[in-house]
């Protein structure tokens, strides 16, 4: 019984690792692609690489495959990835923040009577 | 508030034909007028006003329907990616990334991993202050 639970837990962990790996790799593919139409081709090749090992059952083999793929992904990371402008490291990070609540602009300050 | 004060000041210098002015006033219509009204409310700011929930739902559904493995007729705001739409876990990753791009978001990896259904995705985008 415990072995079944252990098997399932290990399997779930592996699935999560694969999802995260695929997400990171897909983002990296987008970073490397200069144009959108180049990305589509690269993305489908990336997906094929994952699909090739879809039916592997041996847990140890899966672990090794994931480690290899993670190492490969680390080696080929983009040095200057795209960052959404508002996110830390983005071009607009902390630029032009919204004014605090409750601030009112008075355009005729000092000339209210005229 | 500031926009309301600014409006007459701007309108004194700009002449709008009635046809153009109408959608700005009636900003309740979907799509372009809303975006324009949001932009006019705070020009050049990287911080837009919030999206309405309806707009979020519409755009999320559109993104999902455009995925090649999804049958558009099955897409509802309550659908689960894997159970209802028949996607696998890697497709889910792709879909979440597409939603991220649609709303110009950057979802942290571990949070994106937990989004596995349309209600969760809509909830996340609607509550995100930077969704645009």
TrEMBL record, chain A:
UniProt superkingdom: Eukaryota
Pfam families listed in its UniProt record: Complex1_LYR
Sequence ranges assigned to domain Complex 1 LYR protein in this UniProt record: 17-71
Localization per Swiss-Prot or TrEMBL: Mitochondrion inner membrane
Keywords: Acetylation, Electron transport, Membrane, Mitochondrion, Mitochondrion inner membrane, Phosphoprotein, Respiratory chain, Transport
Gene Ontology biological process: carbohydrate metabolic process; mitochondrial electron transport, NADH to ubiquinone
Signal peptide, first to last residue: none
Family, per entry: Belongs to the complex I LYR family.
Subunit relationships: Mammalian complex I is composed of 45 different subunits.
Protein known as: NADH dehydrogenase [ubiquinone] 1 beta subcomplex subunit 9
Source organism: Hordeum vulgare subsp. vulgare (Domesticated barley)
Taxonomic lineage: Eukaryota, Viridiplantae, Streptophyta, Embryophyta, Tracheophyta
Gene transcribed to yield this protein: LOC123411276
Automatic annotation (TrEMBL), chain B:
Highest taxon of the lineage: Eukaryota
Main location (coarse class): mitochondrion
Keyword Glycosyltransferase: no
Cellular component, GO, one term: mitochondrion
Pathway: Lipid metabolism; fatty acid biosynthesis
Subcellular location as annotated: Mitochondrion
Family: Belongs to the acyl carrier protein (ACP) family.
Protein name per UniProt: Acyl carrier protein
Organism: Hordeum vulgare subsp. vulgare (Domesticated barley)
